[in-house]
Amino acid sequence: MIRYALACDCGHEYDAWFGSSGDFDDQAERGLVECPLCGGAEVRKQVMAPAIAKSGGAKKPEKAPDSAAFVKAMRDHISENFKDVGADFSKEARRMHDGESDQKAIYGTATSQETKSLREDGVPFSPLPAGLTPDGAKKLN
Question: Can you give the pTM of this predicted structure?
Answer without folding.
Answer: 0.52
